[in-house]
Amino acid sequence: MTTSAPIAVLGPGSLGALLARLVAQGGQPVAWWGGENAPLVERRARRRGERDAGTTLPPEVRRCAAPEETLDAARLVFLAVPAGALLDLARRLGERLSPDRLVVHAAKGLEGPSGRRPTEILAAEVPARRLGALGGPYLVAEVLAGYATTLVVGSRFDEVHQAVHDALATERIRIERTHDVVGVELAGAAVVALGAAAGLCSGLRLGSGARAVLLARAQQEAMRLGVASGATAETFGGPAGLADLLVVTADPEGLGYRFGRRVGAGEPVGSVREDAESRTEALRALEGLRAIARRTAVPAPTIEALRSILVDGAPPATTLDALLRSGS
Questions:
Q1: Predicted pLDDT at 221
Q2: Taking CA atoms, which of 2, 28, 87, 322 is between 20 and 30 Å from 310?
Q3: How many CA atoms lie less than 13 Å away from 114 in the CB half-sphere?
Q4: DSSP 239
Q5: Please, what are the domains in the chain?
Q6: Per residue in 47-56, pLDDT tens?
Q7: Rg (Cα) of the chain, in Å, rounded?
Q8: Cα 87 to Cα 109: distance, rounded to the nearest angstrom
Q9: Given its phi and psi angles, is residue 17 left (phi above 0), alpha (psi -120 to 50 degrees) or beta?
Q10: pTM of the predicted model, to two decimals?
Q11: pLDDT value at position 29?
Q12: From CA 88, how far away is CA 92, in angstroms rounded?
């Protein structure tokens, strides 16, 4: 379905560029803002093997120098920024994200110690109320190469589901719809956190059995946190949860995975965090999940242990050994 109303995509790097490309390939007008440091982000994406999604965008994509320029008459707005950058962008756009717009974020993560989900941030900062969350198992390089995948859009509004489907669905990209926004967001945050956990296991040279147990326990804890927060358990076992987890924890080039691997290999957390290339949403996600665990009074010992290692710098080997021996 083609519409004359333009679609706005705001987000640096490969994900924002990918969404803009998909919209353009579907024949819809699209404006893309690639961030303040778009060339640098694109070079990093190339080093991660994601191909040059930004500089090879089709000519139908209108590049914008500022996020405000993308909006114009756009009814559907994609915010493809990390969870840690969403608050600043929302405050910058403010009233421009008006009630007549459909706003969908692709921020897999949480705000941090507050535990706020992306749609909670948006609801507090902008007038738009028809919000959605985009999740699911995808690697940018694979989508660009034509591999099939499923994206999940979580929203309370069916018109958001339909707009995202019309904008992104192709023969190779299926759009799954759900009203479980909380589940899509918390499942995505857990996946981001567990990407770093998988890297940690790699750095420690844990066996595949111990790695599987650790990830399974953490995923179960995240599901219980989600249910206590109003999500449905099924979301965590579907494309937005388990399927995405299998993809992210098998990707050694992911930022979270690389962060965890370096910590597991013995580098101090502080020195890894000082490396700009290794800043990761996984740490914010772990902080947020712990905040939700405390707020809901749901035990989450695996998530607590991972946070103590990757955020506080607790000794990885002894901390995980005690956790796995405890049977928690």
A1: 98
A2: 87
A3: 11
A4: I
A5: 7-179 (3.40.50.720), 182-326 (1.10.1040.10)
A6: 555 444 554 6
A7: 19
A8: 12
A9: alpha
A10: 0.92
A11: 93
A12: 6
